[in-house]
Amino acid sequence: xxxxxxxxxxxxxxxxxxxxxxxxxxxxxxxxxxxxxxxxxxxxxxxxxxxxxxxxxxxxxxxxxxxxxxxxxxxxxxxxxxxxxxxxxxxxxxxxxxxxxxxxxxxxxxxxxxxxxxxxxxxxxxxxxxxxxxxxxxxxxxxxxxxxxxxxxxxxxxxxxxxxxxxxxxxxxxxxxxxxxxxxxxxxxxxxxxxxxxxxxxxxxxxxxxxxxxxxxxxxxxxxxxxxxxxxxxxxxxxxxxxxxxxxxxxxxxxxxxxxxxxxxxxxxxxxxxxxxxxxxxxxxxxxxxxxxxxxxxxxxxxxxxxxxxxxxxxxxxxxxxxxxxxxxxxxxxxxxxxxxxxxxxxxxxxxxxxxxxxxxxxxxxxxxxxxxxxxxxxxxxxxxxxxxxxxxxxxxxxxxxxxxxxxxxxxxxxxxxxxxxxxxxxxxxxxxxxxxxxxxxxxxxxxxxxxxxxxxxxxxxxxx
Length: 465
Known about the structure:
Blueprint: H1 11-17, H2 43-58, H3 61-69, E1 73-75, H4 78-84, H5 105-117, H6 121-142, H7 163-181, H8 200-217, H9 221-228, E2 239-240, H10 252-260, E3 264-266, H11 268-276, H12 282-285, E4 322-324, H13 326-339, H14 343-356, H15 367-381, H16 387-395, H17 421-426
Antiparallel strand pairs: 1-3, 2-4
Helix pairs in contact: 1-2, 2-5, 5-6, 6-7, 6-8, 7-8, 8-9, 8-13, 9-13, 13-14, 13-15
């Protein structure tokens, strides 16, 4: 429904943004239905609404599903146990439409149109950078997607653009965005910007980190390293969600726990990895159980009342979920530098990241052990962030074991979401589920070789893909 969709434009998103997300619940049904719709709103009203809406999409069900498959967390009750067994219901997921309709690409293009007419290049560039983040999220998770013909009222059934083409388009868009943000022409959203307050420096660094992230997806490690070097330079410049303790403004994981109880728990995979490394963030991530220990569920476990949930910090109502961060930037720089043969730069970036997070553990000086260390740290650092799933698809690191209770035919870790039935039924360009690949084009047709494959304790082949 990217063009024949329910055009929830303008104030359809603004109504959500007026209270940031008002009383809309992003953890249950009717996720994409707003009772308030209108046809026009100013960019100053639309932008915070888009920020509020998209932060709920990016940190909501999509992140939870990927987190289960990526074994950051584990589904242990009801339909989340089924998701942990890879019994997919992706055709019915609602977060596809939300990236295009009111609160998504439609409203971002409205902002851009208004700012172009007003010759406000700074605000235009910020909206372009935000569009790149939203559409990268869609391309990462679905592969080939409508983009060049999307949200064009003259095209009722937009074609699916190749994933690689979309990434190329987004890189070009970000280059333009950076130039506009730094043009000095016009003003940004100012205090209407919920996260950065219109800061030119922060939005510029955000855009460079996005370019580095997309280059990593493209396997263009030279560009990834160059852009990461220009990206988010301090934790103070992280792009984190806006949250508060007010009803409807709470962190999505807090809302989930309140509404869904113990359907999801900590994962033994992440807990064990952090414990083995004496990672100081363990109790920041997870709470202890009734026995006073952090315990994660293994793939296939059902809830028995002993598994840990998020800590009061990460699971609190006001916790601001990290979306694009300094930690990610440094670890992109570390991996990309390693792949480019620059071990010294890789080690320097990894050390900078560890210092910023008070991680005392020394790093291997070189070789595949260094690469493994970088990816282990990134797996930990990107907790609750769907980007970690992209890393796993690309590197098979860590080398996750699939759920032994998985239900055929899907017995390996899912690598993409199915297109929703609503899109398939209205757009003949969308293939039926049986005709869709299990992997996105950028990920190739075969599983990658994990880092340090064959070393002691490291299987030689990718187990989960």
